[in-house]
């Protein structure tokens, strides 16, 4: 008791994994890291447990014993892990994951066949709708499969389709059957409810399902299901519900077993048949009749009845085997049919960003395979992240429609998705979402290569719709090449009024756009709670622009704690730099690749040092990529001299052409100041990434060894031979 087991888990990693983990210096819990990596490697066949005598035990199940410790899981490539997780032998593994898993990631996905998608839909339904997954992230999917992408997005949003639907299955899973049984039981007289204790089932709330009720639900389903000719076995039918799992619709417990569209039961069917159509098929449930391949087979649905499909097998085959372009077209025609959720901004006082070709205009037509009105609503995730996943017009319309009612969504990250003018479509969905009083969205991050709308216009659009946002990040690399490098944006966005907001963190990366304080000023005035501001790659149109910005920050944002400039030329703004360094409120200042010391004089460097020495509120100073060099680094050691009142804890001097001899001299001078102060110093962290420490390994090692006795040092093994001639001036 009281002894750390971290060294044991670290040694286990070396013995079993036999690899060096990436970013090992940032690993805080080796137990968690080992167990999650161990589970993933066994699941994907990377690790052979028979090769280790400690693991080669018939009584030891690698997946079962490690699953209860897994909080995040990555599925990649052809989704090989889905087959293993949905196998009947791994029922308890899946039950453990449903209670422990919080983050589900998809990386480098490839197109998958119908059977894999079928199993994936069941896995997502179990882990999200009846589990604890709160975050879904997708990475690096250069050519996304439209059907698969929409499937993941819609299940993440909590949608589950009955009868007609992309995710149709012949029978509900055990949890959905219990939910249906509850709603049916609640409609009966108290005298008829002898089979189920009212205390166990209170209006469909999330309670544990007893085996008896599950068995009775199975029996009832088998008796009433349409076309059922044999009982079925399910890997899910006997599972107990986790207390945090939702069994029924978010909109209300009784709605989970009825079709919101009001579609009547088919002739000869019953209401249970319709509720049995909920797309909650248990894992590896054997179908009542084998699905035949759609290839070379006559479709029993005539073309004139395209809007409705009576045969579920034909519908399922059609959705998953028809050509991609046809499926995408059909999905698109039906995804935008959900009434108010697809609202345009046309009638809004803020203008009509969706009036472009990529707008989210409503389209008529009968209810189709992806109508959100005909879908049941279950538990949804609170974080959605899409990194390097191209979104087409159809996919953006789908996502916009999902976002419009995704009230549980708290964090939305869209990074390098090639949005173009489709960004207006997503803004339409976000605008509709903002009208919900129970909307939880607090973090929005949008980044892309080309900007179709000026950064400040986009910031104003989002903030005008979501004044309750806490974090907003807008980042673009280049101006829109199709607009002559001068995107005009939408006048309504620029004129949108911003109510008083709760914004605490604002990050803007300009695609080499001029920074006009006049455009930023309304945002700053509305964000009096702002604590962090980051401005990246902005061009200062005139020498007075930075002065105007600092004046606006002093007047409008008295709570600002962190200010960051990246790739902004501050070589000719020495006065403003000194004003920032003496600010009594700021606790962290970053000048990253700002050419701060490009034409620096000795007097300016001395003023910087003296200003920081007198500032007792500044805790972190980051100066990466500013051509510091050896002699300026040595001079910075005077910040910690005996007469200093500085509270500086962190110093970042990465990418500053620092050589081993300069670092050693800095270390010796720092040691002298510490000795003069009686060993008391607040300096705790020094970052040294991408410096020229490989030019004299022995000297560098001595300097690092002595520095680590004073503070925590973070560096890397960067090859300085790859450095460019940009740093010659400080050699």
UniProtKB/TrEMBL annotation:
Compositional bias (Basic and acidic residues): 192-202
UniProt entry tagged with the keyword Phosphoprotein: yes
Gene3D superfamilies to which the protein is assigned, alphabetical: Ribonuclease Inhibitor
Keywords: Leucine-rich repeat, Phosphoprotein, Repeat, Ubl conjugation pathway
Presence of keyword Repeat: yes
GO cellular component entries: cytoplasm; nucleus
Segments for region (Disordered): 184-239
Domain of life, source organism: Eukaryota
PANTHER family in the record: LEUCINE-RICH REPEAT-CONTAINING PROTEIN 41, MUF1
Protein name: Leucine-rich repeat-containing protein 41
Protein species of origin: Struthio camelus australis
């Amino acid at each position: 008791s009281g002894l750390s087991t971290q060294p044991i888990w670290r040694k286990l990693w070396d013995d079993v994994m036999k690899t060096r983990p990436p970013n090992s210096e940032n690993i805080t819990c080796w137990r968690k890291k080992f167990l999650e990596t161990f589970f993933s490697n066994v699941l994907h066949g990377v690790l052979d447990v028979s090769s280790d005598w400690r693991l080669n035990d018939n009584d030891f199940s690698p997946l079962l014993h490690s699953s209860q410790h897994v909080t995040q899981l990555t599925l990649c490539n052809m989704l090989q892990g889905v087959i293993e997780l949905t196998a009947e032998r791994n029922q308890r593994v899946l039950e453990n994951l449903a209670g422990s898993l919080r983050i589900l990631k998809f990386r480098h996905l490839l197109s998958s066949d119908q059977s894999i998608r079928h199993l994936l839909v069941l896995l997502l339904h179990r882990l999200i709708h009846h589990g604890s997954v709160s975050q879904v992230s997708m990475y690096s999917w250069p050519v996304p499969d439209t059907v698969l992408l929409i499937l993941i997005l819609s299940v993440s949003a909590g949608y589950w389709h009955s009868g007609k639907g992309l995710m149709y299955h012949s029978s509900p899973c055990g949890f959905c059957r219990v939910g249906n049984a509850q709603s049916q039981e609640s409609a009966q007289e108290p005298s008829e409810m002898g089979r189920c204790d009212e205390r166990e089932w209170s209006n469909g709330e999330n309670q544990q399902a007893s085996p008896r009720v599950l068995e009775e639900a199975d029996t009832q389903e088998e008796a009433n299901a349409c076309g059922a000719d044999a009982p079925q076995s399910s890997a899910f039918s006997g599972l107990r519900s986790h207390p945090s799992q939702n069994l029924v619709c978010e909109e209300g417990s009784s709605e989970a077993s009825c079709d919101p569209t009001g579609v009547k039961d088919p002739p000869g069917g019953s209401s249970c048949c319709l509720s049995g159509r909920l797309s909650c098929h248990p894992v590896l449930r054997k179908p009542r009749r084998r699905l035949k391949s759609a290839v070379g087979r006559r479709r029993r649905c005539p073309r004139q009845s395209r809007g409705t499909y009576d045969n579920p097998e034909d519908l399922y085959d059609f959705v998953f085997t028809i050509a991609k372009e046809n499926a995408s077209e059909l999905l698109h025609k039906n995804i935008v049919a959900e009434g108010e959720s697809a609202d345009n901004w046309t009638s809004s006082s803020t203008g009509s960003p969706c009036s472009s070709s990529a707008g989210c205009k409503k389209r008529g037509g009968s209810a189709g395979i992806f109508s959100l009105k005909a879908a049941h609503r279950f538990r949804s995730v609170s974080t959605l992240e899409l990194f390097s996943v191209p979104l087409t017009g159809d996919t953006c319309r789908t996502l916009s429609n999902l976002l419009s009612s995704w009230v549980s969504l708290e964090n939305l990250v869209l990074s390098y998705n090639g949005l173009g003018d489709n960004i207006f479509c997503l803004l339409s969905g976000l605008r509709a979402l903002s009208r919900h009083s129970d909307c939880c969205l607090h973090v929005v991050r949008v980044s892309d290569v080309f900007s179709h709308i000026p950064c400040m216009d986009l910031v104003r659009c989002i903030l005008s719709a979501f004044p309750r946002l806490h974090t907003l990040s807008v980042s673009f690399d280049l101006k829109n090449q199709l607009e002559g490098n001068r995107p005009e944006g939408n006048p309504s966005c620029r004129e949108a009024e911003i109510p008083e907001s709760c914004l605490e963190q604002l990050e803007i990366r300009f695609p080499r756009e001029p920074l006009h304080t006049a455009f930023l000023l309304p945002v700053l005035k509305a964000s009096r709670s702002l604590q962090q501001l980051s401005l990246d790659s902005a061009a200062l149109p005139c020498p007075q622009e930075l002065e105007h910005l600092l004046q606006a920050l002093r007047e409008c944002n008295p709570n600002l704690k962190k200010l960051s400039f990246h790739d902004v030329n501050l070589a000719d703004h020495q006065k403003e730099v000194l004003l920032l360094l003496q600010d009594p409120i700021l606790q962290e200042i970053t000048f990253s690749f700002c050419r701060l010391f490009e034409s620096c004089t000795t007097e300016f460097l001395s003023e910087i040092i003296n200003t920081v020495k007198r500032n007792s509120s500044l805790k972190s100073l980051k100066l990466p990529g500013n051509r510091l060099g050896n002699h300026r680094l040595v001079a910075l050691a005077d910040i910690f001299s005996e007469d200093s009142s500085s509270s500086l804890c962190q110093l970042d001097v990465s990418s500053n052409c620092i050589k081993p001899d300069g670092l050693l001299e800095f270390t010796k001078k720092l040691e002298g100041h510490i000795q003069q102060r009686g060993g008391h110093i607040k300096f705790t962290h020094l970052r040294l990434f991408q410096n020229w420490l490989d030019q004299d390994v022995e000297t560098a090692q001595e300097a690092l060894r002595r520095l680590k006795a004073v503070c925590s040092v973070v560096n890397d093994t960067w090859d300085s031979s790859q450095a460019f001639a940009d740093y010659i001036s400080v050699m």
